[in-house]
């Protein structure tokens, strides 16, 4: 199927994709000023709206639509065809229109145009690692995440790693997995929140110790700032992939990080929701009952029904080495029951220990 000679008008009743108009220049210039790193000025905006979009379409180099929302310019979305009969999607949204699902609607419209009108076989997406708004749109519109490619693109004169994804004509245009948005949970003493980038030193101190080296020998020792930054990125990736929640257990008064609590082993497509907890503490915070209190708070949220703001879970597990008395004591103080021991199933730095399993049911 050929690419149309002129822009069609595409709409879902809320968002409209259309050809550019002279009155879009101000909106394009405003959007460019929101990202000064790109180095575009108002004259660039005028040339792009008046000439550039139409000329790129005529050459079949880039099929660009203006995104109209609430009767005004809100951004643009485009398909860039390649020689293999596929295309790459590009998009950008003005700040005033963000947070309302506008770009997800626009991308669904252009996917329909690309597959059903232009006949593209596959539509590709990639973005610099760390561009979470762009990834969120790709997730919301059904793209399948692919490999993260090191040094794939150049931005600001330096090579950057890129996320990649793709979608086919018969794929559903909705999320394939949940995206776990971290809830902030509180107790009188604690605030459970995400870790911040400025807490790398706190993380490295907590993760570099003899007990960690012994019970979790797969964790690098010493745990460097580079290890901590990689770990933070990995936790964000796993939340975006619907695989785990990860909380910084912080002091409610000072907001200082005291430890970490992870909820993993989640299978959101399974009707019965079971998951596992893992945890570690900063040496300064040990012996105060902090982690057992944090676990009880997470369990309360986890077992609460979806419509009550919880996760709707059924069972939580804690598994650790039989000789890890501190971890076992924490589980027991949080109300978990010892339900089994697997002999010679937990690898330590020096030998293989028994693995003990604790659980907590929604009915407990």
UniProtKB/TrEMBL annotation:
Keywords, in A-Z order: Acyltransferase, Transferase
Keyword Transferase: yes
Molecular function in Gene Ontology: acyltransferase activity, transferring groups other than amino-acyl groups
Record domain N-acetyltransferase: where: 15-166, 201-359
Pfam families the UniProt entry points to: Acetyltransf_3 (PF13302)
Gene3D superfamilies associated with the record: 3.40.630.30
Top-rank lineage group of the source organism: Bacteria
InterPro entries membership: Acyl_CoA_acyltransferase (IPR016181), GNAT_dom (IPR000182), N-acetyltransferase (IPR051531)
Family statement drawn from the similarity comment of this UniProt entry: Belongs to the acetyltransferase family. RimJ subfamily.
Protein name listed in UniProt: GNAT family N-acetyltransferase
Organism (species): Kribbella sp. HUAS MG21
């Amino acid at each position: 199927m050929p690419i149309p000679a002129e822009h069609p008008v595409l709409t879902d009743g809320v968002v409209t994709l259309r050809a550019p108009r002279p009155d879009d220049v101000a909106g394009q210039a405003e959007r460019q000023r929101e990202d000064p790193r790109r180095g575009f000025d108002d004259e660039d905006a005028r040339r792009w709206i008046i000439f550039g979009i139409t000329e790129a379409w005529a050459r079949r180099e880039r099929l660009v639509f203006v995104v109209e929302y609430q009767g005004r310019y809100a951004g643009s979305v485009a398909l860039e065809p390649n020689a293999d009969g596929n295309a790459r999607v590009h998009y950008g949204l003005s700040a005033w229109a963000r947070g309302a699902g506008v770009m997800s609607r626009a991308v669904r419209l252009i996917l329909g145009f690309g597959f059903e009108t232009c006949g593209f076989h596959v539509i590709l997406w990639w973005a610099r690692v760390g561009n979470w708004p762009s990834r969120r749109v790709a997730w919301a519109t059904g793209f399948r995440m692919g490999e993260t490619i090191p040094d794939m693109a150049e931005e600001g004169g330096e090579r950057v790693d890129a996320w990649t994804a793709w979608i086919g004509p018969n794929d559903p245009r909705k999320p394939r997995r949940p995206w776990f948005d971290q809830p902030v949970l509180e107790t009188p003493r604690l605030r459970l929140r995400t870790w911040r980038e400025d807490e790398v030193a706190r993380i490295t101190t907590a993760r570099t110790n003899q007990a960690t080296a012994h019970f979790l020998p797969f964790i690098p020792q010493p745990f460097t700032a580079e290890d901590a930054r990689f770990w933070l990125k990995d936790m964000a990736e796993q939340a975006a992939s619907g695989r785990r929640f990860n909380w910084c257990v912080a002091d409610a008064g000072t907001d200082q990080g005291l430890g970490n609590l992870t909820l993993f082993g989640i299978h959101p497509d399974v009707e019965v929701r079971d998951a596992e907890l893992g945890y570690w503490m900063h040496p300064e915070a040990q012996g105060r009952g902090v982690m057992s209190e944090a676990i009880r708070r997470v369990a309360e949220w986890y077992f609460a029904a979806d419509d009550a703001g919880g996760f709707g879970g059924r069972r939580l597990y804690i598994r650790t080495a039989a000789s890890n008395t501190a971890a076992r004591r924490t589980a027991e103080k949080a109300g978990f029951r010892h339900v089994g021991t697997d002999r010679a199933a937990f690898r330590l730095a020096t030998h293989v220990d028994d693995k003990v399993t604790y659980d907590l049911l929604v009915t407990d």
